[in-house]
Amino acid sequence: MPLDANVRSVVEKKLEEYEGRYNHMYLDTKGKVTVGVGHLIANKAAAAFVVMYTVKNGQPSTIATTKQKQDEYDVIAKQKKNYKASWYKQHTSLVMKDSDINAQRKKHIDTFYSELVGVYKKSKGYTSDFDDFPVEVQKALFDMIFNLGQTKLRNVFVNFNKAIKKEQWDVAAKQSNRPDVNAARNKYVRDLFNAAHASANKAAVATP
Question: At 55, which helix (H) or strand (E)?
Fold first, then answer.
């Protein structure tokens, strides 16, 4: 089953809102080399797989070589941490095209969708499959898996997942807090779960 178009659209928008969108390498809040819409470049070798270009007259020119990308990775990796992403631009000479950033973002969403479908399913003890969750819950889980990764979401947020299994969306809201995420982003996810809870209560009352 393909991802709901409305969910995808909102996920794309919110990821850019919270992760930012940068066509150059920078250090994220944890000091990791990143590019595009929160795309982590895990190590120097991984830099080879990011599509980047040299710049001529302010525009992307020729596709960068593996050496150029890895050299740029090294330059950014040794910069000071805790600066805004845009600050690191002065230390870069390569850029990504918008189309490649979009493709990279789509790949992330498709991968996380596959992982969410694999984790949240009836055969693993959940009341419903991921695709049958309220759209608010789907959106919230996307934000969490993008920020945490599948392993941490599944293994660290134990009480959170117990609430998801029982479809206790209000409890999930309380258990969704992530210490490394800003208050606005945590509130966004919490509000989504609370909205799902309110809708479920309203539907229960309306059912004779």
Answer: strand 53-56
* pLDDT level of residue 203 (50, 70, 90 thresholds): confident
Residues 21 and 78 in one domain: yes
Containing structural domain, residue 33: 13-97
pLDDT score of 136 more than 60? yes
The region, left, alpha or beta by phi > 0 then psi within -120 to 50, assigned to residue 145 is alpha
| Widest Cα–Cα separation across the chain | 68
Rounded to two decimals, the pTM is 0.88
How many C-beta atoms lie closer than 10 Å to residue 125's C-beta?
11
Number of domains in the chain: 2
Last residue of a domain, one of 63, 97, 131: 97
31 occurs within a structural domain = yes
Contact present, 166 and 36 (Cβ < 8 Å): no
